[in-house]
Amino acid sequence: MTNRLKALIPVVVMMALVVMSVVPGMPAKAQSEPVTIKIFVGLGTGYLPEQQAAQVALADEWNAAHDDIKVEFEFHDNDTARDELLTRVAAGDAPAIVGPAGVRSVYETSELWADLTSYIERDSEELGLDDFDAASLGLYELGDKTIALPFGVYPSFMYVNETIFNDAEVELPPTEIGAWSWADLRDKAMAVTQDANGVYLGEEGFDPDNIEVYGYFPFWTNFRASTILFSPTDAGVQLNDDGTVTATFNQEAIQQAVQFYQDAIFVDHFEPNIDAENAISEGVTNPFVSGRVAMGASHTWLFGGMQEAISSGAFTDQWNVYPIPAAPNGITTARVHADTFAIMDSFENKDAAWEVLKWLTSGEPALQLATTYGAMPARLSLRSDWEATWLEAFPQLNLDVVYGALEYLDAPNHEGYMPNYARAWDALEQYWNNLRSQPDFDAIGELDAVNAQVQELFDEALSGEATDYVPTAVATEAAQ
Known about the structure:
The protein is α+β, with helices and mostly antiparallel strands.
């Protein structure tokens, strides 16, 4: 720079200051609008009216502390959320973050999620990856990309209405994992099943067409979730070294499972069929608090509904959690659900979305959301606070059973990978509905048939011949 230019710099600066002083009304440079991070809730839990206020309050807390990024939770009914989300994506109006989303949601729509690998590697120290439950760290790895951080896990166990057992003078199940079997559950379930006239199953005059209390009800479940409890060698999907995938939904353990459920409904009469399931579920936060179910396998996400029913006086019976029974092969499998928040790949400002995602999975926000959702935090450092919350609500809660279930989780997960996922899932669910509604259904023969059908779907997907599976809502939107 020449000496002449150096001499001119103070003069230019002074002139600029003069202009600013004589034109005080000159507008300052407009600040950019804040980025709005919309969080789409509904693929999993979190959408229920009683869960919404806590999430809105959390967003308000973030928004009060940040001017550049704003957070907004959107609530969608679980029955239609998947179609609504795909419609939004097809219309170019994708939200920033989706969650809490379960393992099924991740694998069913795996192409929707952004790869967070580089973000996680960059911020690994801030994230404190060692604080996450090791069992959940690998759930969201799709090939060489990671689409989410662990958020919450939902171990499963048997909810037992102890009042029903005591009234029937039947011994409660054991509290040690591996100490009872599905055959033992059958015996106990039959002993506590009661018709509307107060007659127990096995007593003279019992009316199987007018049952008031069922011994067992696998409520809010599906084919893969129900059959995994019989400890198959895999979750119906065998990955082969040559890159092919074999459907194994007709393996021996799954045959045992479907035969057990069909007999429980139509032969032994201790489990409700679909019509009875709907009647039990009507007007209650969950089927268990109807007072008509002695036992039911479910997860920690049921805690919220239990708390609400007890607080309102809708459920006053004594209850607790007990281990899942061992399968006929001697292996205990306590299926696990897991929830996370993932960033949509089509959302442009992923940096802003990542900042919100980190916040959702950190400290107090993660604890608040986990409590709202009934999830056990994936962060080990939050477990003691989570325990205290639920022990205050349920002082009798057997946490040994809750934590013990994590040692027997299903791996691979029952909601895990399937080629042609949505079509395969729907085929299995059609089978499951037929099994629970048709007394003369050929459980084993039709299992072979649906396994062959699913195998064709797998082969189509891997050969590239599968066509897109477009929900009705998306097709309607595209036609308009």
